[in-house]
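Design job #97: recover the sequence.
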């Protein structure tokens, strides 16, 4: 199993915990953890060469 798949499994587990959370703070905490695991999975896919890097566009500056 790829490392990124393990990270995505962790994200899914966090989402399940968020659904069963007893209150809003716990729900938000588990949701943020799921987002972090998903970001790690995407980064691992990039490190493994499976997805291209994201191109960040910067605003053009004008000369006065």
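Job complete. Output follows.
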């Amino acid at each position: 199993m790829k490392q990124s798949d393990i990270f995505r499994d962790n994200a899914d587990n966090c989402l399940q915990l968020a659904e069963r959370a007893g209150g809003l703070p716990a729900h938000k905490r588990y949701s943020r953890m799921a987002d972090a695991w998903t970001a790690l999975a995407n980064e691992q896919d990039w490190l493994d060469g499976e997805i291209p890097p994201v191109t960040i566009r910067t605003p053009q500056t004008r000369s006065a």
